[in-house]
């Protein structure tokens, strides 16, 4: 039996602060911020690498903010801003780049002649199809790894957490 | 009873491609890439906004690649590169910025005089403690929303998926 004063010595105060052994702790028990960053980075990475091998090697991670929301029927830039959570200035710059690279065109909206629609080109459509196939393939791999039911639950929980959103009111990112 | 040829007409081929109604589908059934991007962005956003209100308003999203791994005992830049999955050139630039902003110092490693350790300053330590508190607070909120057991399962699944990693061999990001 270790006397209290010695036990106190055996568990020095520093041990219970959060800043010692922090990098190691993030390895065996990563917090949600680290898990989210790693998951996002792994997926983004694999999607871009596989798109790159298929000839879409002119896309960069920043384009990932809008690429998942392109639509064959066209979509307004303001809607892309809302879906991606990015400022309209940033969305505008990304669309300029994607137009330059031949993935999208801006056309007059047939329903509202003052508005413009972002419409994928043939290259854009082919990229969209391949990107969606790659993501489906990643999900299939995770579902096989975790088991179908566990993966479906994970996805539902993730969707609920993401839908619940930040909670803290913070301005959109530039 | 609708004859087959008419049914075929009622379900036009375009309907079953994946590129029509895509932006809407990403709202009601976002894929894992979109979920991961949103979760990462929401957490990064809230952490930076709350750090900003507490006076750490000189940090930007890119610093988030290394900040979670800073350690009171110091850590090597190569280790930060490994943990963050970023190229050593990028890690070096981020550390230059964090040193400039007064969050870290580079000191000779007492265990190996040829090596350098990245050590947090007092400001760096205070930022680390607050950042970890904010992330813990976000996790508490999600655990309350999902229920403790469901949240623990989600976290375990996420950890397993992230540990299983990309699967496809892709080079580290610059």
Task: Explain what you see.
Two copies of one chain form a homodimer. Chain A is mostly helical. Chain A has helices at residues 4-10, 13-16, 22-28, 32-53, 77-84, 88-100, 122-146, 148-164, and strands spanning 104-109, 112-120. A two-stranded antiparallel sheet of chain A has the order 1-2. In chain A, a hairpin with a 2-residue loop joins strand 1 (104-109) and strand 2 (112-120). In chain A, helix 5 packs across helix 6 (88-100) and helix 7 (122-146) crosses helix 8. Chain A is globular and about 55 Å long. At the A-B interface, helix 3, helix 4, helix 5, helix 7 and helix 8 of A face helix 3, helix 4, helix 5, helix 7 and helix 8 of B.
Question: Keywords for this structure?
Answer:
disordered N terminus; globular; homodimer; 174 residues
